[in-house]
Amino acid sequence: MRIAHLYNFTQISGHCLIILLACFMLSACNPQTDPLSEREARVNARESELVTLFAELVELKKSLEKDQPDKHSVGENNPRAPNVDGCVCENTEASSVLKDTGKIDAKTVLGGIEMVHLDPPGLEFSARIDTGAQTSSLNALDIVEFERDGKPFVKFNLIHPQTGEKIELTRRLRRYARVKELRSQESQRRPVVRMRVILADIDEQINFTLENRSRFKHQVLIGRNLLQDLAIVDVSKKPDSVTADNSADATTK
């Protein structure tokens, strides 16, 4: 009997041990299962948030695209709408500066024909403004070269712009210039004198080549030796009292 009881007790103890071992294993697995479940739940929640955010972005983009054409159409259809590029404002400002001061970038704007004051003789002459000529030139008749105190001088006549009478001038001979006329293969040697010129707000002492300009309508030709860095020529700007010279002028080299 004792042996039978001992055997039963041993058998029961073995079953209990198996049950305890199974419970221990289950309890050991639960701590791993719970964190995995929680992590999966968090991932699902983030996915839901991202889907919602993406949907909001799509709606916002559609709303912006819908409003954009409306703004363009308002700007195009409304003549009073401001110009985004600012071109109208810049052109208006430039026109205002040109109209009020007659200057662009601190340079005087001249027409193709202008009135110039020469000193001597202290008179106004109509002048052709020619950017193609290197040196200015002056109508000179009866040119006579001579020496005074060992220095070269030249005497010549101008035509009075109002009376048509001859005006005799004597100037120091500075040098000679080689001038080739249009449609001519030969260059001519011409004397150069220095005179004061007042043109618009320009007041300078410049060189003039002396030549017979009787075939031209204007006794004075203003070239680059006065215009450079000081003036801009706009051929559409012409004084009403001056007739344009359609003749070909000489080009100084």
From TrEMBL:
Taxonomy, superkingdom: Bacteria
Residues covered by the Retropepsin-like aspartic endopeptidase domain: 109-238
Matches recorded under SUPFAM superfamilies: Acid proteases (SSF50630)
Gene3D superfamilies noted in UniProt: Acid Proteases (2.40.70.10)
Signal peptide range: 1-28
Pfam families for the chain: Zn_protease
Keywords: Signal
PROSITE patterns named among the record's database cross-references: PROKAR_LIPOPROTEIN
Protein name: Uncharacterized conserved protein
Organism lineage string: Bacteria, Pseudomonadati, Pseudomonadota, Betaproteobacteria, Nitrosomonadales
